[in-house]
Design brief:
Blueprint: H1 3-12, H2 23-37, H3 39-45, E1 49-50, E2 53-54, H4 64-82, H5 91-114, H6 116-119, H7 122-137, H8 143-156
Antiparallel strand pairs: 1-2
Helix pairs in contact: 2-3, 2-4, 2-5, 3-7, 4-5, 7-8
């Protein structure tokens, strides 16, 4: 393996000798990245902005390109998890690793095999209901701003 490939793998692998493993960065990347893919859930969880994007103003993207983006995120994370040496993790990190791995596997199963976004209408009903209901019951912004945010997101979601 040449040096450029080793460098690339080391950037992905938190276990390379030159890099002290930062498992908390991996977990943070997963949690906030997954929430950013589901802005309605992110708002409910109290995460309102991701990399300069106001999540409160968005709805989950279940279009073809949105599903492809989700598949890429979870596939990339699957690859990142494969590079982690689990035996070097402490017990709490191993538990976190397993939780993340299970969530990644579940998401990939749904996106690649089950494809519930194609045939389960409750996804869209629940998404709409949560997007309409939560800004009014969560106290994260003045009600006028919360409702304005909601309606601006709804107007952008039309095909």
């Amino acid at each position: 393996m040449d040096r450029s490939r080793i460098g690339f793998v080391c950037k992905l692998d938190a276990r390379c000798p030159a890099n002290k493993q930062d498992f908390s960065k991996l977990t943070s990347d997963f949690v906030y990245g997954a929430l950013a893919l589901s802005p309605v859930s992110a708002t409910i969880a109290g995460y309102h902005e991701h990399k300069g994007t106001r999540l409160d103003e968005k709805l989950d993207d279940l279009s073809f390109s949105g599903v492809v983006e989700q598949q890429k995120f979870y596939s990339d994370f699957h690859d990142r998890l494969g590079l982690v040496k689990q035996d070097a993790l402490d017990p709490e990190e191993r538990a976190d690793f397993q939780i993340i791995q299970n969530q990644v596997d579940l998401a990939l199963l749904d996106l690649r095999e089950i494809r519930s976004y194609r045939h389960n209408p409750t996804i869209y009903v629940e998404l709409t209901g949560n997007a309409l209901f939560n800004p009014f019951v969560l106290e994260y912004a003045p009600s006028k701003r919360a409702s304005g945010t909601l309606f601006s997101g709804c107007s952008r979601s039309r095909p």
